[in-house]
Amino acid sequence: MITALLLFWPALAALLVLLIKGQGAKKVAFIAALVEFALALFATSQFDSTDGAMQLSLNMPWVESAGISFSIGMDGISLLMVLLTTFLVPLIILSAFKHDYKNPHIFYALVLFMQTGLIGVFVSLDAFLFYFFWEVALIPIYFIAAIWGGENRIKVTFKFFVYTIFGSLFMLAAFVYLYFQTGATGASAHSSDVQAFYQLALDSDTQSWVFWFLFIAFAIKMPVFPFHTWQPDTYTESPAQATMLLSGIMLKMGIYGVLRWLLPVVPMGVSQWDELVLVLSIIGIVYASIIAIRQRDLKRLIAYSSIAHVGLIAAGIFTLNEQGLQGGIIQMLSHGINVTGLFFIIDIIQRQTNTREISSLGGITQNAKGLSIFFMILLMGSIALPLTNGFIGEFLLLMGVYQYNAWFGAVAGLTIILGAVYMLRMFQGVMFGNKSEHTEAFRDLSASELAVLIPLVIMVFWIGLFPNTFLSISEPAVNNLLSIIKR
Amino acid sequence: MTSIILLSLFGIVNLFLGFLKSKRIMLPIVLLFLIVVFGVNLLSWNNTQSYFSNMLTVDNFSVAFTGIMVLTTLLLLPFSQSYIEAKDENLAEYYSLLLFSLVGAIMMVSFENIITLFIGIEILSIAMYVLAGSDKKSLRSNEAALKYFLMGSFFTGILLFGIVLVYGATGTFNITEIGAAQAATDGLMSNMFTLGLLMMIIGISFKISAAPFHFWTPDVYEGTPTLFTSFMSTVVKTAGVAAFYKLMFAAFAASYATWFPTLIAITVLTLVVGNIGAAVQKSAKRMLAYSSISHAGYLLMSLIAFNERSEASIFFYSLAYSAATVAAFGVLQYVENNRGGKNFEHFNGLAKTNPLLAFVMTVSMLSLAGIPLTAGFFGKFFVFASVLEDTNLMWLVVIAVILAAVGIYYYFKVVIAMYMQPAVSDEKIEVSSSASFMLIFITVLTILLGIAPALVSDIL
């Protein structure tokens, strides 16, 4: 029941927000998002983290003729994703308080509506329900980015939209195909339940193409090299909040999709193609890092760094060992937190200086001590310094990749060095040196900005120092997953 | 059967209403007629009966499709407001022609005899030929009527040849007996029969504007006054596809292997031509014309699947498609009349002046594109599901999926114009309250079916 409440509360709140004209909408939206976070915490307290099975489930018929049931529930992996989403959304709404978006009630309603889509993706236990929410999450973010975005937004977001739908339609085709493979031969015995998909025993040729149908959808969403071309432009042109939603939460949909709907469903397909996926991911890491070094625009730089980070997560997950998977999951949390924080700081800088060009900035440390500290901490998290969250994730991931193939591990390890290069270069250019005309009158953080950054930084250290809080939640689920894959 | 009689009567009564001075009263009366017909039609549910020594059969299939078609007409009539305001002299005739056309459409979904099918198609078509040319002073409208009429008669001829050849080979017009005749020979029929079958397929493909018999569609749709285009692309298409399905299922099931290659070629071609054609249009109306071709392709997919899911998926798809199309043409009509054109750029900034129209149009476009939360998604889903029951047809679904992504491209052009482009005019478009009510009703229906498709998907 609590899972259904988690799922529908944001949508209900969105309808409520729609009715509120003017700037009061953001306050209501913020409170609604906080309530959602409280619900998620309550769900966590009800959750038995020693059990790897699905919990807090709810199963009701939905479209019986097509075998679709409204089946939701969570295991440790889902729970962590739900926690991440519910933790970040209120902060993202709070981060928009300084903006005066036109038609605020629509803007915040769309954010909340998207949250329902995101939670739905993470808790769906029915393939078609999953697909349903997968698309439901896309529509609001498209409108947020395309209506409130930058100059080039229309073309860029359109590419993003068509590109991702193109991928997901393949996923739908694969799901329909898999659905007809379940059960005995007989029309009524089919099921689109996740467990029924796990029990499928397809021959390896079939698994091979089903793998690609599913992988394309997830790879575009993450995005994995060479499916990433929509991402830098979309991140750059979207309003800051949309960028945070896209990078902080939405790309996790892709990774989560791999964990829940790809690896256990077509393990033989995975074993045929995992090497290629690892190679692609690792190419992506190095390629995106090198491009990031050359970027002059702050947002683009972080966008490329995000491709690099996600490349490592994808590589780790496809190693199919416990370190890789656990590292991937913890890194999803860390990346969500760090990248949201970084995009927020870029937003603060841009709002005050009207520029994102590194060369036009500089000397911000002199005026804004507070901002510098928070920026530095999030940066360190991003380049995986020990004691921060990034370290735990990247360490586990690299360990996983190393076990798979030592050479792959070595090349993937470049991410740490290259990451330090572009991040520190950026920090240097923006924060140190002489003040420019744009940064002359820079003000330090305001109370509402602090309210966003403090929880994020707390999480950076919490995950960095006590990763077991989170690792222990996902561990039984990961072992469960591995036992299905290795069956 | 009662609905056919009632509609014919109402059509004649309506002609006499043309003598009334007040044009305003006509619309409520026609709407009332249609509501009565809709209700009477439902009375035949679960009550299969044959009429006129097996010329017509009213069963759940025909009741369901009659329901869609009457409902669609009911939904699109309030958009005739501009005719009422212009005090158009021929309004009563237009309404009557629509009602007569509906009679033909109902005959097409309840035929038991190929002759009834033929008569139904003709009643439907002749009324449409007239309506296509109803804007007498417009060159485009005249062109549309002439083109539609010439091409239509030509293909009617082909259909009739087909019927005669099939009759020659089997000795009967009754569809059940035609089916039995093939079963008796294990589907090995004479060349005459095969030729007749193919000619019938070609004749009906023309009516549902399936490629390569679609060439008339964009010009005719564009030239015809929008109100009647809306009728053409919904009721005519629904009737055509339902008749096609019934014909193939009842009469030619045993010859599946014979017609399957032809029909699959037609389907793939229709999907490609419709979607690619729509993607390059500048005019929203022409885009909708090509989109109606592409939807004929999706509908044909579930006909090809030819299994127990086909019927329900055609039903659901027709309903979802009709609802969204009526709303789209309704909004288009307002834009056309008030913004001086029907290109994409005439939609610019509509969200600022008329949020309701923009929202309705967006939901329709999402539904036509098949995006979740709208009825169109489940329409596509049921179609794909019925095709994939035979996993050898995976390639067809892949083609359809790629073309569905192309579909999103052109449907979103409208959405982008409405929400993201600066307005062409600050003037608010006045929408009559009955039309607003219908637009809201369609939107709610589209979203409701997108969330709870089981409300109607299981009835057949």
From TrEMBL, chain A:
The keyword Manganese is annotated on this UniProt entry: no
Alphabetic keyword roster: Membrane, NAD, Translocase, Transmembrane, Transmembrane helix
Cellular component GO terms held in the UniProt record: endomembrane system; membrane
Every NADH:quinone oxidoreductase/Mrp antiporter transmembrane domain range: 125-415
Single Gene Ontology MF annotation: NADH dehydrogenase (ubiquinone) activity
Membrane topology, as annotated: Multi-pass membrane protein
Subcellular location: Endomembrane system; Membrane
A Pfam family hit: Oxidored_q5_N
InterPro entries found in the cross-reference section: NADH4_N, NADH_Q_OxRdtase_chainM/4, NADH_UbQ_OxRdtase, ND/Mrp_TM
Residues covered by the NADH:ubiquinone oxidoreductase chain 4 N-terminal domain: 58-119
Family, similarity comment: Belongs to the complex I subunit 4 family.
Record-given protein name: NADH-quinone oxidoreductase subunit M
Organism name: Pontibacter arcticus
From TrEMBL, chain B:
Chain ranges of the NADH:quinone oxidoreductase/Mrp antiporter transmembrane domain: 113-404
Location within or outside the cell: Cell membrane; Endomembrane system; Membrane
Keywords, comma-separated and alphabetical: Cell membrane, Membrane, NAD, Quinone, Translocase, Transmembrane, Transmembrane helix, Transport
Chief subcellular location: membrane
Cellular component annotations (GO), alphabetically ordered: endomembrane system; plasma membrane
The protein's Enzyme Commission number: 7.1.1.-
Pfam families, per the entry: Proton_antipo_M
Protein name: NADH-quinone oxidoreductase subunit N
